Amino acid sequence: MVTYKDAGVDIYKEDRVIKALISQITFKRDDIKPAELEGHYAGAIEFGDYYLVLCTDGVGSKMIVAEMAKKFDTVPIDMIAMNVNDAICIGAEPVALVDYLAVEDIDEEIARQIGKGLNEGAKEANINIIGGETATLPHMIKGIDLAGTVLAIVRKDQIITGKDIKPGDVIVGLRSSGIHSNGLSLARKVFFEIAGMDIHDELPHGKTIAEELLTPTRIYVRPVLEMIKKVKVKGLAHITGGGFRKLRRLNKNVAYIIDNLPEVLPIFKEIQRLGNVPDEEMFRTFNMGIGFCVIVDKEDAEKVIEIANSYNIPAFVIGRIKEEPKNKVIVKYKGKEIHLD
User: Fold this and answer.
1) What CA–CA distance (Å, rounded) separates 2 from 189?
2) Half-sphere exposure of 330 toward its Cβ, with a 13 Å CA cutoff?
3) Confidence (pTM)
């Protein structure tokens, strides 16, 4: 039996580290007013009738898989997806991105592949890449690291924080494309250490490990922005590291009950089978096939699903909002309740 912590990632320790870091950042400019978004997906400051929104993120250990497979044209899409999918969680439209590429050493072919992926991700997210930085750091970096920062905008009167979520609302889940960009440390430990497999080995459902792990994170920008225009969206959650625990960022005064999940994707079944990973650990680590959640009134769910389907994204009503227990996420799976505290 293996856990995410066994693979070197302690999500609870990360929570404590973030709190320790934030506790020391107290300086604020008097002439800049930030939005009240503590603990949310993005940071924002007032700019006239708008908020300027910033998000930053990287590829993480998915880059190690790219190096193993010698394939670098999909991970830039992941980097862009991780940023823009966070930005849209407060209703903001991403408009521009700058990237940061840190390398031990690099050649032109790898650079071309990364450039190709950056272009594809920018096109899918409908953003401009307006600059960036490349640093060769042989004494600091082993391999390659790729990160970026996105700028997004939202009118002040249209920001979505989750404050309007109430009991009786439903949670619509949008299908992920696979593992996305979280839990790769655990996936690598299971496939390459515990199971002793090779990156190009084929899994029972016909895809190789490389194909599964390097499938880029789905970008939800266009469908979600359309949903915001056509229905009253009350809450938006990008399901990344920590799984459905991310829902607690939206509104701490309600309970999130996930009780109607679609079938788990094959990649997660294989990780669980080969690593004997407990159900609880799977749901605390991976998206389990749902990459994004949209919370709306029950009568608006059908329209949200229709919009997602028009972008070839399967969508389902996967849960509901209850009054109690407050600030809890409960997943009902295989006849038991999993509390994602």
Assistant:
1) 9
2) 17
3) 0.92
Element (H, E) at 58: strand 50-58
pLDDT higher than threshold 90 for residue 167 = yes
Q: Among candidates 12, 7, 321, which has minimal Cα distance to 170?
A: 321
Q: What are phi and psi of 119, to 5 degrees?
A: -65, -45
Q: What is the chain's percent helix, strand, coil content, to nearest 5?
A: 35, 25, 40
Q: Look up tokens 């394939």; give the residue.
A: 71
CA 255 to chain centre: 21
CA 225, CA 1: separation in Å to the nearest integer? 41
What's the pLDDT tens digit per position in 193-205? Answer: 999 999 999 999 9
* Residue appearing with tokens 């619509």: 172
Q: Are 287 and 243 in contact (CB under 8 A)?
A: yes
pLDDT at position 116 over 70? yes
Across the strands, what pairs with 103? 136, 144
User: 111: buried, middle or exposed (CB in 10 Å: 19+, 13-18, 0-12)?
Assistant: middle
What domains does the chain contain, in order, with CATH numbers? 32-158 (3.30.1330.10), 170-339 (3.90.650.10)
